[in-house]
Amino acid sequence: ELKVEQNPLFLSMQEGKNYTIYCNYSTTSDRLYWYRQDPGKSLESLFVLLSNGAVKQEGRLMASLDTKARLSTLHITAAVHDLSATYFCAVDNPSGGYQKVTFGIGTKLQVIP
Amino acid sequence: GAVVSQHPSWVICKSGTSVKIECRSLDFQATTMFWYRQFPKQSLMLMATSNEGSKATYEQGVEKDKFLINHASLTLSTLTVTSAHPEDSSFYICSAPQISGSIPGSAYNEQFFGPGTRLTVL
Q1: Lowest mean pLDDT among A22-31, B32-41, B103-112
Q2: A93-102 tens-digit pLDDT
Q3: What is the pLDDT of residue B23?
Q4: Coil, helix or strand for A102?
Q5: Best exposed site among A42, A98, A103, B16 by fewest CB in 10 Å?
Q6: Chain B residues contacting A via beta carbons under 8 Å
Q7: What is the nearest CA distance from B50 to chain A, expressed in angstroms?
Q8: Using one digit for the tens of pLDDT, what is the confidence trace for B4-22?
Q9: A56 part of contact set with chain B, CB < 8 Å
Q10: Which of B96, B30, B76 lies closest to A42, judged by CA?
Q11: Chain B within 8 Å of A81 (Cβ-Cβ)?
């Protein structure tokens, strides 16, 4: 059974600081997704990581994937209040073919002005 | 990108009644859609896979007689919560996947999520 673990679960940080969120998964997969969710809203796709060593950046967020370590990171640079949200990673679930994904529990990020 | 809508966005109902939630893919066809449930401050839990023209596939622990899924067309899946109780109160999200990526070996599963339906059962 595929397990996806995120840490930390909750993160409070001041504006301008840097931090990294980690996503570990238990079985082989080379498709990993990061999503953002604002309170009461659905999920917004941030990054799709397709191969070992993939790195993608958008604004103050950068995501990377190490398929050998089964680890993805979401790095926040110089955080701003607008980044406050819950961030989920998700991994393609082999048992469901390529269409099914398993989500991590989420990391709630609070950026304090 | 592709758009998925859900209706209604918020519903409050009395215990014992049934509630239907619609999920539509607006500009693409979806032979498969997924239904998730999210309790406050928790992750998305996959409830079932909705398959156009055939029976839905339910995840372990999800009662198929309680959560009826119908995928009657390539753009519409419905989830009916039958005899709803307060413990069924949750945020229900659907998604429809599309395969993206034109380079061989780079195809990936891009999920398009609906805006969610908040169900409150009194």
Answers
A1: B103-112
A2: 776 665 688 8
A3: 97
A4: strand
A5: B16
A6: 32, 34, 41-44, 46, 49, 93, 97, 99-101, 106-111, 113-116, 118
A7: 11
A8: 999 999 999 999 999 999 9
A9: no
A10: B96
A11: no
